[in-house]
Amino acid sequence: MVGERKKRILIAKPGLDGHDRGAKVVARALRNAGMEVIYAGLHQTPLQIVNTAVDEDVEAIGLSILSGAHKTIFPKVMALLKQKGISDILVFGGGTIPKKDWGKLKSMGVGEIFPPGSDTRKIAAYLYKVLEEKN
Amino acid sequence: MKKNSNIDEMIQQLFAGNRRAASRLITRVENETEDHHEIMKKIYPHTGQAMIVGLTGSGGAGKSTLTDHLIQKFREQGKTVGVIVVDPSSPFSGGALLGDRIRLQRHFLDDGVYIRSLASRGYLGGLSRATYNVIRILEAMGMDIIIVETLGAGQDEIDIIHVANTCILVATPGMGDDIQAMKAGIMEIADIIALNKADLEGANRSLRQLQTALSVASLEEGQWAPRVIPTVSMGSRPEDLKGIDELTSAVLEHQEYLDTSRSIDQVKFERVEEELGLVFKDELQRLIFKGLRGTGKKRKYINSIIEGKNDPYSVVDEILNTYLIRKKKK
Amino acid sequence: MNNPDYMEAREYGEDVSLDEERYSNLSGFHIKPLYGPEDIPKFDYGTDLGLPGEYPFTRGIYSTMYRGKPWTIRQLGSLGSPSEANRRIRQLIQMGSTGVSICLDMPTIMGRDSDDPMSEGEVGSCGGVAIDSLEDMRNLMEGLPLDEISINFVSNSQSPVILAMFVAVAGEHGIPLAKLNGTMQNDILKEYQAQKSYYFPPRPSMRLTIDTLHFCSEDMPLFNPISISGYHLASAGATPVQELAFTLANGFTYIEEGIKAGLSVDSFAPRLSFFFKAHNNFFENIAKFRAARRIWSRTIREKYKAGDPRSWRFRVHTQTSGSSLTAQEPENNIMRVTIQALSAVLGGTQSLHTNAFDEAFSIPTPRSEKLALRAQQIIARESGVINTADPLGGSYYIEALTNEMESVSYEYFREIENLGGVISAIEKGFYQSAIADSAFKYQEEIEKKKRIVVGLNEFVTDEEVDIELREPDPEFEKQKVADLIALKKNRDLNVVKTCLNEVRQVIQGSDNVMPVLIKAVKSRVTLGEIINVMRDIFGEFREESIY
C-alpha cells in the first residue's frame, strides 16, 4: 500500500443544511472502494471547500446538497476554482437536485449528479472511470 | 499525474510558499512517483529549520482539539503553521476516511495555515511512510512550525519521536492512559503530557499519578523534565478552555531548552538517522525487487524455502552477493 | 407444540431461515415464520398490557381510543412567505384538518435572519416560513382561530424566540395564553444526535429548553412545549428500535433536567409529547408504539415517581416515512403511505401526518395533498379499525415483538448510562456512530438486494421521473430582505439596544429568558439578533467526530 497511488476525494456539505446521512454513507462507501475520502464537516462555505480541495490535492469534490441551494452553491464553487486557475478537479454532486437543472450544471463544468437512492457502487465506479480517463 | 508538469517550476513555487505547488508535490512524494527522488533531493537543502511538534495519544483524548488551539496560539504569535493529520487506512480496501479536518475548520481560510490529511497506507507506528517527507516539504515551503498528529491508536505510536522535536502525549483521566503510559515507558518519549478533559472526575488523581511517575524517572543534569499540563480543550467559549496558554508556553520552553542545551543537535541527528534508515531500506528493497521482477526468481526462492532446500538468510545472502558482484563488475 | 400445521410451518421455517436477513425486520430482529403461546411464556394481562387508558397503557392511552377521541389529522402547511402560508393553513382547515404544522425555512432553522450573508439563496427554502420578526408571525397567524385549532411549530433551537413571538401575537388577538393549544418541537437533544440544526452546546441549550418548559407549565397548560422526536433519528438512519430507545432516553433526560431545575415532575410531564416515524415494516412499527407506552409509563411512575396518571401517558404524533418514498413510480407511495398510516393507527397514535405521494421529491399539488388527507379519512371512517381499541392486543406476534423491542431498548438505556447519560453520550459521539452505522447497513442491504424496495431495486421499469423542488424564489428573497431592512430602520434603535442588553443579561444569569424575549420581540428585535447574542455568550457547538 505504501507508495501506491490512491484516489483522494473530498466530500463536502455546503451551506446551512445539516442532513449528512447521504454524505456520510457515500464517504464510507468510497472508502470501502479503496479511496481516501476527506470529509470536513457541516456548514462549509464554497471558499472553505475549495481551499480544502487545493491543500489536500483531491481529484474530485462531491457536493451534497439537499436544501435546494444547488443553483447558488455550484456556480460559486466553479467560479472559485476558475479564479484559482484550477481546471483539473472534477466537481460532482448528490442530493435533491432536479434533473432539469443537470444540463445547466453540466454546462458549468459539473460532472454527474447522483439523486437520492443512487447505488454507491455506481458512484465509486463513475469516479474510478472518469478520474482514470483524466490521467 | 500530469506528465508535463515542470518539477523545477513547482519546487521554485514551493520555496515561494505556493500552496498548490506544495500540495501537488506532497501527492507525488506520497505516491512515490518516478520523480519523487528528484523532488526530495532538490528540496532537502531547504529543510531542517522548523519547530516540529508531535501529538500522540488515543482517539477520543482530544488531540485534534488541542491541535486546533495550538494553531490559534502560534498564529497569534505570527508564526506560520503546517499541520499533518494521520488517519488509518482500511486493511481490507486500502481506502481511508480522513475526518480530522473537521475540528480545524476555523483555520481553513487562514493563509498562514496549511493542513494535510494523510492515510497510514499500511504503515505501522502511528504515522504514514510519507510523513517524514511531507514534513520536509512543509519546511521547504517556509512553515515556521509543523504540527504532526498521529493516528490515535495509542501506545504503539512511537514513530513520532523520530520526527518531532517536541512530543506531546495527550492523555485523559480514567482512560487508563495514565497507568498504561507509565507501564509502557512512554514517559521517556513524551516531553510534555497534556492531561486533557481535566475537568472530569479523577483528573486530580491522574495528575498526581503522572507527576509521581515522572519524578521517579532518573534525569541527568540539565535534562528536560517532562511535565504534565492539565488542559480542557473542548469548550465552545474561550472561558471554558483551560491550560492552552500553559501548553503553548511549555512547547516554546522546550524548544528553547533544545536550543540552549544543544540537545537539538541530538534530535536532528536522530531524525536524519531515522530518515536515512528508511530511505535506505526502501531503496534497497526497490532495487532488489526491481531486479527480481519478471525473472520468476522470487517465486523460486520462496518455493525452495518451503521445500526445505533453502532458508531466508541464505537466500538474502545469495541475492546481495549477486547484486553486489554485479555492481562491482560494472 | 404438537399442532401439525405448526410443525409444517417450522419445517418451512427451517428452509427459509437460511436467508435470515430477508426475514429480519428493520431493527434486525429475525422474524419467525409463526408465533405461538410459547413466544410469550410469562404473559400476564394485568402487568403487561392492562386496559387501554390504564397503566401501563400498552393498549393505548385512552380507554376508548378512537371511538372516544379520533386522532388529530395534522398535515404540514407551509410556503415561503408568511402570508402565503397563512392562506394555505386556512385552506387546510377548510378541508378538514384539525391541526396544522408550521415548518421554518433553512435560515430561520439555523437562527439567521433573511439578510444574513449565509442565508443567501436559502430564504423560503424547504417549504418553510421565513420568520425574522414579530411582523412575520403576525402575518402567519392572520385571521386564524387560535383558540380553536392546534398549531405545531416545527422549531427547535430557535424555539424560545418563536414561542415569544407566538405569545405576543396571541396577545394581539386577545386570546388568553391558557387557551392556546399546540406544540413546539423544541427537542434539542435530537439535533445533536441527528438533525444537526443546533447552535450552542448541549448544556446551555438545555437551560433554554427548561426555561420554555417552565414558562409553559405555568402559563400555557394546553400547550406541549416539547415534542420529543424519533422521526429525525430514523430519517438519519436509526432503526425502529434505536428510534424507540434513543427517543425515550431523550425524554427521560428532559424529565431529569426539569426535576434538577426544581420543577415537580407532574407539573410538566403531562405536557411532554412525542413524535415518531411510521416505518414501512407494519407490525414492527405497531410494536414500537406499544413498547413505548409501556416503557414510558413504568419509568415515569417508578423511577421518576410521577403521581399524576397524565404524566404516565405517552402521547405521540406520527408522520409517515418520507425517506421510504421513491421518485420512481411515485403512485406506489400512495400504498406505502396508507400502510404506514394504518400501522400508526393500529399503534395508537394521537395525531398523524400522511405524506403526499410526491412529497419527498416534489411540490405536492392540491390533488396529492388531498389524497394524503383522504387516506386518513378512509382509514378512520371506512376501514372499521377504530371500532375497538388496540385490535392487535393479544396477538402472539405483536406481544412477542413488543417485548423484544422493550428488552433491546433497556440494553440501549444501559449502554447510554455507561457513557454517562444522554448528553455525555452525545459529546462522545455515540449517537453519530450508531446512527451512521445503521444508515450504512441499510444502504448495503438495498444494494445487495437483501432489502427490497419495489420499483427501486426490484420490479424496476424505465419510467423517467424527475425530482421537483420547492425552489427558493429569488424574488421573494429580495422582497423579504428589503422588508427586513426597512423594518430594522423603522425601529427605535435605543429600545432595540436596551432589549438586546437585557437578553444578554438574562442569558448570563439564571432567570427565565421568556419574559425578556417576549419584550424584545414586541420591540421588533429580530430572531437573528437575539440568537447572535446567545451565540456570543454560549459559544457555538462543533461536532467533534464524524463517526
Description:
The complex is a heterotrimer of chains A (135), B (330) and C (547). Chain A has 5 helices and 5 strands. With 135 residues, chain A is of the alpha/beta class. Chain A has a single domain (8-134), classed as 3-Layer(aba) Sandwich (Rossmann fold), CATH 3.40.50.280. Chain A has a 5-stranded parallel β-sheet, with helices on both faces. Chain B has 330 residues and is α/β, with parallel strands linked by helices. Chain B folds into 3 domains: 1-45, no CATH class; 47-261, Rossmann fold; 276-329, no CATH class. Chain B is 47% helix and 13% strand. Chain B is globular, with a radius of gyration of 22 Å. Chain C has 23 helices and 9 strands. In chain C, helix 4 runs parallel beside helix 6, helix 11 (240-260) packs parallel to helix 13 and helix 21 runs antiparallel to helix 22. The chains are: A alpha/beta (135), B alpha/beta (330), C alpha/beta (547).
Brief digest:
The complex is a heterotrimer of chains A (about 140), B (about 325) and C (about 550). Chain A is of the alpha/beta class.
Set out the fold topology.
The complex is a heterotrimer of chains A (135), B (330) and C (547).
Chain A: E1 8-12, H1 21-32, E2 36-39, H2 46-55, E3 60-65, H3 70-83, E4 90-95, H4 102-108, E5 113-114, H5 120-134
Helix pairs in contact in A: 1-5, 2-3
Chain B: H1 7-15, H2 19-30, H3 36-43, E1 51-56, H4 63-76, E2 81-87, E3 96-98, E4 113-119, H5 131-141, E5 145-149, H6 160-163, E6 166-171, H7 177-184, E7 192-195, H8 203-216, E8 227-230, H9 244-260, H10 263-292, H11 297-306, H12 312-329
Parallel strand pairs in B: 1-5, 1-6, 2-4, 2-5, 6-7, 7-8
Chain C: H1 4-16, H2 45-49, H3 65-68, E1 72-76, H4 82-95, E2 99-103, H5 106-109, H6 134-140, E3 150-154, H7 159-173, E4 181-184, H8 189-195, H9 202-219, E5 223-224, E6 226-229, H10 231-235, H11 240-260, H12 265-268, E7 272-278, H13 282-303, H14 309-312, E8 316-320, H15 332-347, E9 351-353, H16 366-381, H17 396-418, H18 422-427, H19 430-447, H20 474-489, H21 493-508, H22 514-522, H23 527-538
Parallel strand pairs in C: 1-2, 1-9, 2-3, 3-4, 4-5, 6-7, 7-8, 8-9
Helix pairs in contact in C: 4-6, 7-22, 11-13, 11-17, 13-15, 13-17, 15-16, 21-22, 21-23
